[in-house]
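REQUEST ID: PR-0412
SUBMITTED BY: lab tech R.K.
PRIORITY: routine
TASK: structure prediction, single protein chain
INPUT:
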Amino acid sequence: MYADEKKPAAAVASSGRGKVKVYQRILELLEAEGIDTVFGIPDPNFVHLFVEAEKRGWNVVTPHHELSAGFMAEGYARMTGRPALCIATLGPGVALASGSMMTSLVENTPVIYLGGQRARITERRVRRGRIQFIQQEPLFENSVKWSASVEYADQTDEIFRHALRVCQSGTPGPVYIEYPSHVIQQELDVPPALPPSSYRLVEPGADGNMVAKAAELIKNAECPILLVGHAVQCTRAGQKVRELAELMGCPILQTSGGNAFIEGVEDRTFPYLFSTVGDEIVAKSDVVVAIGTELGEPMHYGRGFLWAKGKTDRKWIYVELDPEAIGQNRPIDVPLVGDLRTVVPQLSAALKGSPRKPHPDLRRWIKEDAERLAALAKQDFKTDSGRVHTGQWVVEATKAMPKNAIHARDGGCTVVFTWTYLQAKPHDVVWNQNFGCLGTGLGYAIGASVADGRKRPVLLTTSDSSFLYHIGDLEVVSRLKLPMVVVVAVDNAWGLEVGVYKRTFGHGNTTEPGVHWSKDVRFDQIAKGLGCEGVYVDKGEDLGKAVEAAFASGKPTVIHVPIDPVINHGGNENKDTPNYDRFRTWYAEGQQ
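STATUS: complete
OUTPUT:
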């Protein structure tokens, strides 16, 4: 504790505050940031913290695997715009959570991973055969933005404040804090927790001259566009971006990672790469305002593929919190370095005196894209096997999704189909793009629902292979009575990998070892065994009604849908998966 942060002794005594335990102080520091949920499995290091959290009115969410706890925390952070807390027990617990640390790092999600450890007198001995023990911090330091170990109780404030500072500054990401077991029960004599603005830069703005320069480019442009990424949803800044879009009179392009729709401008929002209207918008654009995106491989770095056509001398305005990101993937004409929650309103203020009229092609683009989606829903979905076509699975499930639902996605082929056939325009979407990690969907859906207060409906569309990773956490869905419907596409295989075999060796030239599994698994029955409702639907035309009925029931439900395996992996030659050729262009340098 810094001396200038201490209250005078008289003030402490008069407040009647007294001393607090380290675990109590941890919760106080996190509460100052608006955090009120802990994900993890308690062990002797943390049982006191869990009891205290419950007393303070926190959500205490315990999954059945530490890896899943990390995914839940990530879903929570994406829905709140705040960091999340994930607890893992010493040794195996922290080891199992490490995969989610890597996921949080690549997905740019601010999660605080708090790990237990043996008392230092045990850890630092020269001994063999110690129980439930590894040297943890060195193993994980490359999987997080910053790591620390609290060696003394009075380091608690400074370490947690720096963790909160690091995980939210620059490119957001995870941090790891380790507590030896002898420290967490010690007492501290400290004042109430400081507000965040006292120890970190909160939502910094951009340079005024740069904002003015960006505004002039937009005012003089022929076809300015907004390119909106994942961070817009994660910072809960949608309405601020909406105001800017309306002032610019422009279309909005979604990155594949930021495919949540902003309420009020859904019709003028189009997917990059997966619609013909989007192709035309890219070609015509002469000023791009990129917000909340890394401009990474799925965006062809803003240089290749679609960007190499049309007005290739277009100007780029980049709203980005991390100054080190400026110019890494492509040259930037006007960098607006700061938090988009502050910078976007700055830009809107500069445009309010001279708002642009809607682009003359905007109405046509809206009409043509609506016609594209309608045509997809009306196509012939018959299959030789009689099982459900994956495109119809997406159409029927997403048409029936309530308008205010949160959409969680997981899977391989099923996600590729979703990019093309999606019929809904959800305002919140959680899925794992950058890391490409399967099995995140159920954890993401649970974390997002908890963050939402368990109020809005949640639709998880997933594949059988992905769903099996953490299917045990259906018990969590049941226990918490989450308003969730899970629609599982079942082809009894690792669908994308089947396609890889066919693309590599040709159809029928291998037995495709390791990618086919039992056809006897019934997810509807598993769901019932874990306390949820289970429904079996084998006709595509019946799926929409089943989804609507499941949401109307208010009970968490799993719907098992057998899909055609050949359609799912793109036909016997793996050439018919929708937009698969475009998906492959994500690997922008031409290397797998």
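NOTES: Residues 208-365 form a domain with the Rossmann fold fold (CATH 3.40.50.1220).
REVIEWED BY: pending
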